[in-house]
Structure formats: structure tokens, C-alpha cells
Amino acid sequence: HIDFGTEVTRTLSSVQGAVLLFDAAQGPQAQSISVHEKAKMMDNVKTIIPVLTKVDLPAARTLDVSLSVSELFQLDPDNILHTSARSRIGIRDVLDAVCSDIPPPEKLPDDDDKILRAKVVDSWFEPQRGVVCLVQVLSGELLEGTRVSIIEPYKKSAIRSAGDVSEHWSNTKEHYSIQDVGLVLPKRLRTKRIRRGQLGYVVVGLRDPRQARPGMIITLQKDLGTVVTMHLPKPSIFEENASKSVLFASVHPMEGEGFDELAAAVDKLALNDTGLEIHKTAGNSNSDGGPFLGPGLRVGFQGLLHVEVFQQRLADEQGLEAIVTPPKVPYKVTYLPSKSNKRPSDAPETEIIEDLSKWPDHGVRFKVEEPMVDVRIMAPIDYAGNIMDLIKRKRGVDMQSKPIDEITFLFTAMVPWGEVVTSFFDDLKNCSAGYASFDYKESDPPFRESNLCKVDIMLNGEIVDPLAFVCHKDSAYEQGKAVCKKLQDVLPRQQFVTVIQAKADSKVIASERIRAYRKDVLKTGGSKTVGGGDITRKKKLLEKQKKGKKRAQLTGRVTLSQAAFNSVISR
């Protein structure tokens, strides 16, 4: 999945070749194109072996898919291997092609077979062993029992001086003893040493995977001064941007006093999920949650699926129920000259806004640029009309389509990232009966000016910051009305009236009400009603009840659930 492209990048950066699989029944998918492009742009990937799998299925279109793959990826159809794991077809051919076509790792220019340089490919936490690192030995030999240091060069510095190691390299003062070394086959096999060109695992007694992030270098402690003057492979642009968060959401405990427990649980999840970007914040910001949610954490994610996996892991592994607010994307706001502008003179003219509580107030002159992504969709031609309508609804531009084969079309368009993270994937599956696949990447340029506005959601006149969202001004009423209607369905009924309002540009654009529970005060018990006499006696009881409801509305607290925030995501 595109949300977990970090793992693909991490793997491709440490291999000399790859096997690109295609389904003989479904043909190439949108993700196939993005992974192929990523592999072709990496200098270390020398060979890509195309393989067609599931050729034994009754629905397999072996010849058609081979021709479409060869045309789409500029490959010779005779070089595409046909396999089936179930029927054991072509397995030996794939292994033989790996051995004969993929070259061995290249030797570093200054390799003397003595100095150890091992690159960390991945790391994960195990309760019994601590951090286990998957490493690639670039030079030298990794032996059990030796003392090593894990170092990382500063990205902005190109100076390497043996005399001042700590100035340009981080983590140079820590050193560890290698406890366990071996190969992964795929089970771990302890070999006590791994040599140049091998990928293996190593355990050095770390407790946090962030101490050994991908790209860091393991070297012998005694050779530290020499290693910093030697050649090391430069990370590609894909590796540098692999863990860049593209979505931000606030995570809050179900109960206000459970913040410390939530923070500890999220830290534990981060041990095995380096894609999480955690910020502990306080104050009256969106991450604080205000009177409705209480304090929380601001967390960066790789995509919407990453958010869902995070929530599920939090419940399954930590036994903790938490509320995750609708994900927010960053917007670029440029303030325009104005006599009424009260901003400080030293304040920047342009800023990136991720927290909508910092959105400019109504009346301030500014322009907004929203992040854009290039969307690529592959689907059967029968659903072409539905997909083009969906792209148009999501404000997509520069839409193009071309046939891949007789039954499959490729659609490309530039779509606002804010539209993709709401319900684009669900809508795409619905309009294509589940057959479509899609992929996206950052557009060039990444931002585009648009006529946007912020829509605030109010409960009983009080703004709920976590429920706010940004949309195009032309659709503000429609989306505000939809959110109010969904909140009316999911919010619990109270002893007082709950007024739900959507506000944009200081104007209320939509409103819904949840009726209060109401006791029949004219009944004294059972079916017996208040006795006769003057009508003012009954009016007095009703008026007293009415005043109590108004008082409760001022002091009452509306309980927000995860379903309330999901209504904003699926608006």
C-alpha cells in the first residue's frame, strides 16, 4: 500500500536487483508503476526481473497481461517469466534468473577488507532481545563480542574531520558490545560473523529502535576516527523523504485523566513504527482538545491507512481506546498587505499551517495554497465514467486517460491532497465495485492556490477545534450541512437541547438540533395527572422545567465519540 512505501524504499536502497510481480488475472496495478519508477531511479538497483504469477488460474490472461506489461514498462515480453506458487510452475527459473542476472554488491572505492562499515537497513524491538537491527555489511567483517559505535552524519555538513568527530557526526560517544550476529533465512540463523556483501541481523543491547535508524553506520569503536574520513554511500532522495509525515492528527484518551497512560502506550507503539512522528503539546491548541477532549498528542502519519492501523494496534496491543481527530494536511498561507493587518513586523509573510486553530481570522487578507498530489488510477474500462466523475467531484485537474489493454484504463490527474485524505479511497472502491487501484505522489509544484475557507463546528455555541475542516468555498454549505447531519445522528441525546452549527467566514451556514430528554412534569405518578384548578398551575410547572433545561444547556457537557470525528472524515 502507498502508505507503507517507506518499507519499499528501505529495501530497494540496500539491494542490487528486484523481482517485479504481476498478477496474470488482474494485470498491472497503480502501485506497480510507482514501485517500478522508484526502483529505476535508484542507482544501486541494477536489474529488475519481471515475473507473471498465478498463470494457472482459470481467469488468467497470460498473453494479454504480458503484452500490456511489456508496453507499459518498455520490456521484452519474451523475458517475462511465468510462475505459479500453488502449482510450482517456474520457481526454479526465477531463482536461476536472480543468481545469473543480479550482480553482487560493489566494493567501496577505499575498501581495504579491514575497516568495518555496516549500514542499518531496518530495526525493530523485541521484548526479550531488545532492538534487533537488519544490517548490510559494506566493508570489513562483523564479529560477535566486538565493541562498536553507531554513527550518523549530519545531513547539512559535508566536512569530515578525524580530529573533530563529534562536530559532524552524531551518537559517537555511545558504544556497545555485539551480543548476537547471524543471517535471516528467513528464520534467524546465528553465524557469529557476517562479511562484506551479506545482509544479516545484529543485537547490540539497544532499547529503542530510534537509536539505530535506517541509514546509520555501525563501525568498530577503535576505528571511529578513521571511518569518518572514508567513503560512505549517500542516501537517495527517496530515503531522505521516506519517513516524512504527510498527515497530522491529534490523539486523545477517552477519559481526561488517562493522558499519561496514552502517552506511554503511544511511545511503545513507536518502538516498532518509525513512521510515527510524535509531539507532546500543551495549551489551548487543537492538540489540547479544549473542554471537549482534554489534553492529547499530536501525531504525524504516512497516510489514512496508517491512521487506521495505529488505532487498531493501540486497542489490540495496549488495550487502550483513544479518540483520533480527523487528519489535517498542511496549508501554505501568505499574508497580503493591508492597513488592518495587526501582525507583528517580524512575523513571516508565508507560513505552513498544520493546526487549524492557527488559521487566520476572518477579515485578514491572505491567500491559501493547498498541497496537491498526482493521482494514478487503474480500473476496468466499464467504470471509466464513474471514475472521471469522482475525479471531477474531488476538484481534480489535468485529467488524462489511456488504455493499458483491452479491458484496463489508466487515469491520471492532479487532485488536492485534502480531498484524497477524506473519503477518496472508499468512494473509488464504491464506484468501481472494488476493481480499481490507485497510487499518488507529490505534485510538482507541490502547492496550488485555491479559494478555500475554514469551517468551524460549534456545539451549543462553543467551537470544537478538532472538528474543524478546510474545504473549497463553493462546497462549504454542502459539506457543513453533511457534517451537522451526521453529528446529529451519532451524538448522544442529553437532558438539554444540543445545537450543532457549522460556521464559515463568521457566518452560520448550517444548523441541526438534538432534542432533549423531557419528563412529563404534569404527571404526579403513574397515569395520575396534576389536578384541576387554574391553568397557571400547569404553566408554572412547565416554565420551571424550561428554565432547568436552559440552565443545563449552559453548564452541560456534550460527550464526543470516535464516530463524531469519523463523520468529518467521511463528509
Name the descriptors.
571 residues; alpha+beta; 15 helices; nine-stranded antiparallel beta sheet; six-stranded antiparallel beta sheet
The percentage helix is 25-40%
The number of E-state strands comes to 31
The value of Rg in angstroms is: 29 Å
Main β-sheet, in a few words?
9 strands, antiparallel
What spatial form do the alpha-carbon principal axes imply? globular
Structural class category: alpha+beta
Distance between the termini: 24 Å
Low-confidence stretches: 154-168, 282-288
Describe the structure.
Strands 4, 5, 7, 8, 9, 10, 11, 13 and 14 form a 9-stranded antiparallel sheet that branches. Strands 19, 20, 21, 22, 23 and 24 form a 6-stranded antiparallel sheet that branches. Strands 25, 26, 27, 28 and 29 form a 5-stranded antiparallel sheet that branches. It is built from 15 helices and 31 strands. Helix 13 (476-490) packs antiparallel against helix 15 (562-569). Helices cover 27% and strands 31% of the residues.
Q: How would you summarize this macromolecular structure in one to three sentences?
A:
The protein has 571 residues and is of the alpha+beta class.
List the helices and strands and how they pair.
Elements: H1 5-12, E1 17-23, H2 30-40, E2 47-53, H3 62-73, E3 81-82, H4 91-101, E4 117-126, E5 130-139, E6 141-143, E7 147-153, H5 165-168, E8 169-170, E9 176-177, E10 180-184, E11 188-190, E12 193-195, E13 199-203, E14 217-220, H6 224-227, H7 237-240, E15 247-253, H8 259-270, E16 277-280, H9 290-293, E17 297-301, H10 304-318, E18 322-324, E19 331-335, E20 350-353, E21 366-380, H11 384-393, E22 397-403, E23 408-416, H12 417-431, E24 437-450, E25 452-459, E26 462-463, E27 469-472, H13 476-490, E28 498-504, E29 507-514, E30 523-525, E31 528-529, H14 536-555, H15 562-569
Helix pairs in contact: 13-15
